[in-house]
Design goal:
Layout lengths: L4 E2 H7 L11 E6 L3 E8 L4 H4 L10 H19 L2 H4 L2 E13 L7 E13 L2 E10 L2 E14 L2
Antiparallel strand pairs: 1-2, 2-3, 3-5, 4-7, 5-6, 6-7
Length: about 150
């Protein structure tokens, strides 16, 4: 199991590809417990180009998506590969999502995520998003591991 993952290593764990692969790196990994995901928010990122012209902002739903991708990568990296092969992780619920400050390019968004519990194929997580130690958002969410069709 890894202490950090680069984008190419993340691609081996997640089915997401550009432009929807949002996380660039996963660092400070504590197996099946916590990690920090890095999202490099750029002026040419597809999700800010029309949101909003002249004053680009990363949409909150993309912050939540990045939380989910980080959690999926943390889980996939920590469990036995044979358990994860031919599987997908689907978001089940999002709770208590709060968007405290707008995330604007060019910045490094850091997502501190933690697995709260797991029950079978269902996992619950929580996370906080920061730019330079300023809290931008936080949320709790649940996801499940399902067979790839």
């Amino acid at each position: 199991m890894s202490v950090s993952l680069n984008k190419e290593q993340i691609k081996k764990l997640l089915p997401h590809r550009e432009p929807m692969l949002l996380i660039d790196e996963l660092i400070n990994i504590k197996k099946l417990f916590s990690a920090t995901a890095i999202v490099n928010v750029k002026k040419d990122s597809f999700y800010v180009q029309g949101h909003f012209p002249g004053q680009p902002v990363m949409p909150g739903v993309f912050i939540v998506e990045a939380f989910g991708q980080a959690a999926a990568a943390l889980t996939a990296d920590g469990i036995d590969k044979s358990t994860y092969e031919n599987k997908l992780v689907f978001l089940m619920s999002v709770e208590k999502a709060r968007f405290r400050n707008p995330v604007v390019p060019d910045c490094k968004l850091e997502l501190n995520i933690e697995a709260i519990r797991s029950h079978g194929k269902v996992w619950k997580y929580k996370g906080e998003a920061f730019v330079e130690d300023k809290k931008m958002a936080d949320a709790q969410w649940s996801a499940t591991i399902v067979d790839r069709k």
